[in-house]
Amino acid sequence: MSLRLERHKHYVDLVKQRDGFECEVCDRSYGDGFCCSECNFTIHRKCAFVFMLRDLLEHPSHVGHCLKLLTTGAPDHTDPKCHLCGKNTKRLLYHCSVCKLNLDISCIFDYFSSRARLIHSWHHHPLLLFDFRFQLQCDVCHMSHRSGYFCSRCQLVVHKECVSKIESAEITHPFHARHPLKLLTDGAPDYTDPECHICGKETANLLYHCDKCKFNLDIDCAIRNPQRLSLSKLKVHEHTLTLMPKLMFFVCDACGKKGDHAPYTCVQCDFMFFHQKCAYLPLVINVNHHEHRVSYKYPLGPGEWICGVCWEEINWSYGAYSCSSCPNYAIHSRCATRKDVWDGKELDGVPEVIEDIKPFKMNDDNTITHFTHEHNMSLNKVTEEISICEACVLPIDSYTSYKCSKSDCCFILHKLVLIFLRRDDTF
């Protein structure tokens, strides 16, 4: 996405880098911003609204002359340092050509902050109310709008509607009832894991934290989408499951996969563990890899099981989906509920309509008619001649097969392949 920033002569591109890049305004490193390929200009998305400031500005530290916004750095004839704080100026600064005076953007924002005095108890820096020229994402609701409060120190953005959602700088939350949680607005501390202990997602600038337990809770889990402390009347388990709000390694009994945060557990069943998503697994579903419905079963039961979707081994001691009509067919829980495999419909209690579709038509002359071939086919007698199945491309050998009845046609299929081929299959 290319756009034009005011006072910058080239188009800039929106880029996202995991490790961030050096910004022309701030000293922070995070990976969402604009880059100019023409002059190697880089600026964070939240810092880019510096371009909303006026071209000419009066400042109480320099009475008598207006300061002009420069986007190409301090002129060669002047000291590149800020004459107020002493720091080296970056490419964006305010300059007085008469007095050869430079002020960096941080000092300019400090001036605005002292005048605005938009101070909230839950944030240690003043917040400025702005109308943005482009959409910025709110750190509370994660929605993008064109107006809101902005902190020039830590690039915090909060929409006006979301200010009321943050009640105070300290809360008591049921996920961590032992100690109060403090609101942090500049990210998780270095001594703790940056992930949320409930959902496992990496926390943003705004989060709740307990310094005694090194516990993190992001805004989504605290305010917007809180998880339930207990679950009952589930499809996959008969007992009530209780949330364990902590970072811990476990193996999910429902899917057999590892987890690292906040499982649901059943105390009655000797601490069975469930991923938060696996606790809501459906009981009966239809998958596009099998002609019958499959049902969730825990445990799957002893045997050598191969998943009908990914073709990898299934650990029978965990939960999986199996077919009651085909005793050797099973699917991993995660594979069965993939978006490209399952249509998202729960079929528990819905009667199953089984269509009696024969794989081929038996003719009176002991030949069969199959949709894969234009001629009739008959049971093939095994000979020493090596033949290759047209569908699976494997040697016929001693397996039962059907061959074209015409002597001048060599079309041949294994019997098992012939039975299980569908009209939407290609080979």
Explain this structure.
The protein has 427 residues and is mainly beta. It is built from 4 helices and 32 strands. The protein has helices spanning 105-116, 219-224, 333-336, 415-420; strands at 2-4, 11-16, 32-36, 41-44, 56-59, 62-70, 93-96, 101-104, 128-137, 144-150, 157-158, 170-173, 176-184, 207-210, 215-218, 230-231, 241-243, 250-251, 258-259, 264-266, 272-274, 284-285, 294-297, 305-306, 313-314, 320-322, 330-332, 361-362, 368-369, 377-379, 401-404, 412-414. The strands form 10 sheets. Strands 1-2-3-4 form a 4-stranded antiparallel beta sheet, with no helix packed on it. A 4-stranded antiparallel beta sheet has the order 5-6-7-8, with helices on one face. The longest helix has 12 residues, at 105-116. The protein is elongated. The model has no long low-confidence stretch (mean pLDDT 81).
Which overall shape is indicated by the principal axes computed on the Cα atoms? elongated
How far the N terminus sits from the C terminus, by CA atoms, comes to: 42 Å
Number of alpha- plus pi-helical segments: 4
Proportion of strand residues: 25-35%
Spatial order of the strands forming the largest sheet: 1-2-3-4
Mean pLDDT: 81
Concise account of the structure shown:
The chain has 427 residues and is mainly β. It has helices at residues 105-116, 219-224, 333-336, 415-420; strands at residues 2-4, 11-16, 32-36, 41-44, 56-59, 62-70, 93-96, 101-104, 128-137, 144-150, 157-158, 170-173, 176-184, 207-210, 215-218, 230-231, 241-243, 250-251, 258-259, 264-266, 272-274, 284-285, 294-297, 305-306, 313-314, 320-322, 330-332, 361-362, 368-369, 377-379, 401-404, 412-414. The mean pLDDT is 81.
